[in-house]
């Protein structure tokens, strides 16, 4: 019996996969009509830091949120490394996910060794498709850490390709390109972050602080750059430790609110926007779908609350 040419098999697989797709904008049978959001971080803590507050807001409204750590974080500590650290950090983000009301996954790629390969692009493409994402978030490609940069590159390179049937034909393509967003950062070159959307996380601040506190290897032990001296400054009492977390991590999210106050005023109006204490901000990646103001209000259904 003659075997089929490889390109013919690929074509048949693609046709079979795409037959499960609907027309652009249509929902699959059994879909509950809620938003589906997938957020990529380079390490098991990045998405929690950058989008934990807005994730909790989406989840509270019944929307579906998933955080993905693209590496397993196995060198992200100054005392331990390898498999034991990877397992520990996976357990940490699972606990954080329970607090936020979301799902989480950690990929088995070594910390510090992520590269923008075709295989990794396929992995990201499949994850976005499997989640049937409306919204995709990641780092910007010009970040200080190579894993952050390459996560941004991989997610950016998956934009549009998630709709192309002959890429990863084993996973049904999306019928329309999601909206892709970048997390906020302070890097200026070659271009600075632009806050297209700024979201108050005042009402989910406590959840975010608790989720951050569920990452002790990073928050209370200093991660890759910790030390014995760092440990001496961390309270042992649980209540005092939480107060320390609010003081030291809360100021980060207060700084986001202050830095992007104009964007908060734009979305919430002058009175509410000026009163926001803590915020998260996001920039639209132009390689994904480009939403107008009305669609952004639907994707971030918090501004009228």
Description:
- It contains twelve helices and seven strands.
- With 305 residues, the chain is α/β, with parallel strands linked by helices.
- It has one domain (34-299): Rossmann fold (3-Layer(aba) Sandwich), CATH 3.40.50.
- Strands 3-2-1-4-5-7-6 form a seven-stranded mixed sheet, sandwiched between helices.
- β2, α3 and β3 (103-106) form a beta-alpha-beta unit.
- Mean pLDDT is 91; it is low at 1-29.
Shape: globular
Radius of gyration: 20 Å
Strand content: 5-15%
Low-confidence stretches: 1-29
CATH topology: Rossmann fold
Domain module tally: 1
Supply the CATH class.
Alpha Beta
- Binned, the helix content reads 40-55%
Write the topology of this structure:
Elements: H1 6-18, E1 36-41, H2 46-60, E2 64-69, H3 82-100, E3 103-106, H4 118-131, E4 135-138, H5 146-158, E5 179-183, E6 197-200, H6 205-213, H7 216-219, H8 228-232, H9 238-259, H10 261-268, H11 270-275, E7 279-285, H12 293-299
Parallel strand pairs: 1-2, 1-4, 2-3, 4-5
Antiparallel strand pairs: 5-7, 6-7
Helix pairs in contact: 2-3, 2-6, 3-6, 4-5, 6-9
């Amino acid at each position: 019996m003659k075997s089929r040419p490889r390109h013919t098999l690929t074509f048949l697989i693609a046709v079979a996969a795409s037959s499960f797709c609907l027309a652009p904008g249509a929902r699959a049978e059994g879909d509950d009509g809620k938003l589906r959001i997938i957020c990529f971080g380079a390490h098991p803590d990045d998405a929690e830091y950058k989008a934990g507050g807005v994730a909790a807001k989406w989840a509270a409204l019944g929307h579906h949120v998933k955080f993905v750590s693209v590496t397993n974080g196995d060198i992200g500590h100054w005392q331990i490394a390898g498999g034991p650290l990877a397992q520990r950090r996976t357990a940490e983000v699972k606990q954080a996910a329970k607090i936020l009301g979301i799902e989480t996954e950690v990929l088995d790629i070594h910390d510090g060794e992520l590269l923008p390969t075709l295989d990794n692009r396929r992995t990201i493409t499949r994850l976005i498709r499997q989640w049937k994402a409306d919204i995709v978030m990641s780092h910007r490609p010009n970040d200080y850490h190579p894993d952050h940069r390459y996560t941004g590159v991989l997610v950016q390179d998956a934009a549009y390709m998630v709709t192309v049937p002959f890429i990863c034909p084993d996973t049904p393509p999306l019928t329309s390109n999601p909206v892709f967003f970048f997390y906020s950062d302070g890097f200026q070159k070659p271009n600075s972050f632009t806050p297209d959307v700024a979201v108050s996380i005042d009402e989910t601040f406590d959840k975010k602080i608790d989720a951050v506190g569920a990452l002790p290897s990073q928050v209370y032990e200093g991660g890759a750059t910790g030390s014995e001296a760092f440990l001496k400054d961390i309270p042992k009492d649980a209540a005092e430790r939480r107060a320390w977390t609010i003081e030291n991590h809360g100021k980060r999210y207060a700084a986001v609110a202050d830095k992007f106050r104009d964007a908060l005023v734009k979305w919430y109006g002058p009175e509410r926007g000026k009163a926001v204490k803590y915020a998260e901000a996001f920039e639209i990646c132009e390689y994904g779908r480009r939403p107008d103001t009305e669609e952004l209000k639907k994707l971030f259904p918090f501004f009228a609350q």
